[in-house]
Amino acid sequence: MNYRLIRSTKNLSERHRLAYPILFIGLVTTLHFLFPNVLRGIATTVARPVWVAERTLVDAGSAFLGYFSAKSALIDDITKLTTELQHKDIQLLDRDILAEENRILKESFGRGDETKSILGSVLSVPPLSLYDTIVLDAGSLNGVREGAHVYVGPILLGTVVRTTGHTSVAELNSTSGQVTPMRIQHGAVAIPIEAKGRGAGEFTATIPKESDVAVGDSVFLTGIRPTLFGTVDAIDSTITSSFQTIFIISPVHIQALRFVEIVNDDSTIDL
Amino acid sequence: MYRLLADCAMVLGVLFLPWWVVIILGSVFFMTFDSYYEFLFFALLSDVLFSVPLPRFGGFEAVHVTLGVVLFVSLFLIKKRVRV
Questions:
Q1: Where do the Rod shape-determining protein MreC beta-barrel core domain residues begin and end (chain A) (predicted)?
Q2: CA A211/CA A232 separation, integer angstroms
Q3: Weakest-pLDDT range from A135-144, A170-179, A220-229, B35-44
Q4: Which residue of A has its CA nearest to B62?
Q5: From the list A43, A171, A178, which residue is nearest B45 (CB)?
Q6: What CATH architecture applies to the domain A117-271?
Q7: Looking at residues A188-192, what average pLDDT do you find?
């Protein structure tokens, strides 16, 4: 009769097969956290040209596919976009005058807006990792510092957390669980809220039901610079509850993001 | 040769695909190839490229490596059982 050997040499060697790689990766991970810039520098140096090549290929592919678009569809698109542009032009007629007036007023009260921004191209967007971060092609050698704010126009997206020579990693304000103090502008009333990130440019906030808020209201960050965060997308309230949940959405489509502005030493907002 | 192609696919996966697709791809390669240790390397690569200290993970920055080790051990045991 044959008996199965429980503690056989095969079992032992299999345990070693399991333990050695885990020990090795544990060692490398420990070394990475002790000297974070070594491995990160190598990895980003290798990854950056691959990301840039992918962006170039996608752009070239889009241009090539454009040749096969139907002529009537293109004419429709041009007509629609021209009409939209004309409406926007009319709406923005006084924008430059108001911005100039705003700048003069701030300067006369000693709060001039002297911020200079660095243009950064977006190399990767969520959901590539569980961290909900974006990788930018500008790093410490381009003047980007940790703690710099990342903008798209007047919209604040997040904060630079890591920098290497030619890349930086920014954490988004909409990262799940991230809490940011903001205010909802409803007419002349500013309602303070604490917006909780839900990922992909979405936030929620809970406020008393008595607070007057409407869909489409703008949500700003507190500070001297009018930093837009998003707009109220939906309001959820029940008869029994004394609170209402506000759903806020960023006007920036994170997945389609190509370029951002990076601002170091941004003292115009309170975060 | 196939293993090298699989490794290239995993590198591209880490750089361009959502994390959950990379996990599925890695699990498939783990079941296909003998001792697919690269699985852990790609988890580390993902942490190196994208990690930041987030409050929801308690500031822990090795989330992908931890997930990778748990998956590696689980898949190792599953593969062993399936073969018996």
A1: 122-263
A2: 14
A3: A220-229
A4: A29
A5: A43
A6: Beta Barrel (2.40)
A7: 80
Q: Is the distance from CB of B64 to CB of B47 less than 8 angstroms? A: yes
d(CA A209, CA B48): 44
Q: Tell me the sheet residues that pair with A206.
A: A245
Distance from CA of A180 to the nearest CA of B (A): 13
Question: B67: Cβ–Cβ under 8 A, 6 or more apart, which residues?
Answer: A130, B23, B43
Question: What pLDDT digit, counting tens, does each position of B11-68 carry?
Answer: 999 988 888 999 999 999 988 888 788 888 899 888 888 888 887 788 788 888 889 8
pTM exceeds cut of 0.90? no
- Closest residue on chain A to B77 (Cα): A18
Give the minimum alpha-carbon distance from A186 to chain B in angstroms, rounded to a whole number.
31
ipTM, two decimals, is 0.81
Taking the domains of chain A in order of start, what are their residue ranges? 10-74, 117-271
Give me the pLDDT at residue B24, please. 92
Which residues, other chains included, contact A127 with Cβ-Cβ below 8 Å and sequence gap of 6+?
Answer: A199, A200, B18, B19, B20
| Chain centroid, CA B25 distance in Å | 8
Phi and psi at residue A114, to the nearest 5°? -105, 15
Q: Name A163's Cβ contacts closer than 8 Å, sequence gap at least 6.
A: A139, A140, A144, A145, A146, A169
What is the spatial distance between Cα B23 and Cα A215, in angstroms, rounded to a whole number? 39
Q: Do A128 and B50 touch (CB under 8 A)?
A: yes
Q: Which residues contact B50 (CB under 8 A, 6 or more apart)?
A: A124, A128, A129, A131, A133, A135, A169
Nearest chain A residue to B46, by CA: A129
Nearest to A168 by CA among A138, A123, A133: A138
Q: For residue A135, which residues of chain B lie inside 8 Å, CB to CB?
A: 49-50
Domain boundaries, chain B: 2-83
DSSP H or E segment with residue B19: helix B19-32
Residue in A34, A131, A196 to test binding to B, most B beta-carbons within 10 Å:
A131
Q: Within 10 A of B71 (CB to CB), how many other CB atoms are there?
A: 17
Interatomic CA distance for residues A141 and A184, integer angstroms? 38
